[in-house]
Every structure is written in structure tokens, then in C-alpha cells.
Amino acid sequence: MERELNILLIEDDPDTCKKFAEYIDIKNEVALTGVTNNSYRAIELVKEGAPDAVILDLELNEGQGNGLMFLQELEALSLPFKPYILVTTNNSSSTTYHFARKTGADFIMSKHQEDYSEKRAVDFLCMMKQTIQNPRNTPDSNKQASPAASSDKQLMRLVSLELNAVGISPKVIGYQYLSEAVLLIIQGHPHNICSTLAKQHKKTDSSVERAMQNAINKAWRTTDIDDLLKHYTARINSDKGVPTLTEFIHYYANKIKNHL
């Protein structure tokens, strides 16, 4: 089944939020994963939920912060994944537009356009869905068919989406280690993963291994069983009830390589 495009809405007008939510609700290919009028909270929602796209109002007069601050903070984080940023705004300043694009806005829709509507904004993201979810399918990246030629950022975004789907978010201790472990295997470094990560992070091998397994254990303890069965289809040892670290990272390395 084709995965929905997950959208985070950053907007301060309640009526506008309602219109977006109602239209997204009837569209099968998209899902609204969060709504906020606070640019600071929005950063946390991006880190927690790894949305595919963000609909961003620039001014947030009735909320906290603003869209430009959100773009700056998002850029400074250097996350392994970057959501597609669709700006919708009443602002018509060319200087503001230039700064927004420079700071990470992918597309800007003026609310002053005759044909602007919440429906049109969502339909635009639906049109872009395949490219947003699969940046490797763009014309330039199609020339690079092997996993080794794909950028680390694209791969890390795919890893992040997979981990998030089973309830392992960037807030979980072990998340970064798991992401990097999967990437190392994709890149062809299958041996001594814990030792490699321990040296990179100046930790002990055992602490890195324990953090990763604890993250897996927590996900299997707290995430809805239907979500686990949907997103992790490998067989699990009935005695343990959860994947081992080796099983887990190799499963996702193979899953992502098979989709490249």
C-alpha cells in the first residue's frame, strides 16, 4: 500500500486550520500529523514526527515566533531529513521571499493570488508527493542508481522515516546510533558496527549497543502492535518477542537498499 504524505501545519488562524484539516481528511494520499501556531513547538514536532512536508505561515501573528525563525532553526539543526517546505503567506515583500527561499523554503504561495485556497495548497503537495517522498527519483538522482551513489542525507531521511514508523523518534536514546548503524551497513561496513559507532561518539561499545537495543525494546513495548506488524515484517524470535539489534539494523538496511 502506498504511504501517505505526512504534513505538519504551522498556522495561526483557526478557520484556516479547520479548512486544511477538513480537506486533508478526505484525501487518501495525505495525512495531517500535527498543527501548531508556535514556531518553537514546530521544531520539536519536526524532530519527533519527521513529516514529509510542512505548510508554513510566515507571520504567525496570533501564535508564537514566526515562519522565518522556524526556517532558520530548522536549517541550524542539520537534521538527517528535511521536510518539503510550502510557505503560504499574506506577506508580499520580495525581500522576505528571498530570505525565505535562501533559508529553506521550497515553494511560496501568496494568499493574495486569485486562485489561492487551502485546497490548492494541499493539491500542490499531492502533485509533488512522489518527488517529496523519493528525492532519489528526480532526473539528476536517477543517474545515480546505486546505494553508494545516493547522498547520505537522502538515506538518513529514509532511515528516519522507518524508525519513526515503529515509534523510535529522535528523542529516544539510541535513535542516532541506530540511524548511523543502518547507514553503515547500506554503505558496506557490516562488521564491528558498535565499535565503529563507539569510536565516533567517544563512548564504550557496550553503552552504544545497550542504547540501541533499549530503543528497540521500548518501541516494541509502547508502539501499537498493528503499526509494528505493518512496518516490521521480518520474523521475530518468539522467546525474545523483539528483534535483536543485528536483526533490526540488517532488516532496515536491506529494506532501504531494495527500494533504491
| Low-confidence region ranges | 136-150
Total of DSSP H or I helical runs spanning 4+ residues: 11
CATH architecture of the largest domain: 3-Layer(aba) Sandwich
The helix/strand class is alpha/beta
Strand order of the largest sheet: 2-1-3-4-5
Q: Please indicate the count of domains.
A: 2
CATH T-level fold name of the largest domain: Rossmann fold
Q: Give the strand content.
A: 5-15%
CATH structural class of the largest domain: Alpha Beta
Number of strands: 5
- The H-and-E topology, N to C, reads as EHEHEHEHEHHHHHHH
Question: Can you put this structure into words, describing what you see?
Answer:
The structure is a single chain. The chain is of the alpha/beta class. Helix content is 51%, strand content 11%. β1, α1 and β2 form a beta-alpha-beta unit. Residues 136-150 have low confidence and may be disordered. It is built from eleven helices and five strands, in the order βαβαβαβαβααααααα. The radius of gyration is 20 Å and the shape is elongated. It has two domains: 5-133, Rossmann fold; 147-258, Arc Repressor Mutant, subunit A (Orthogonal Bundle).
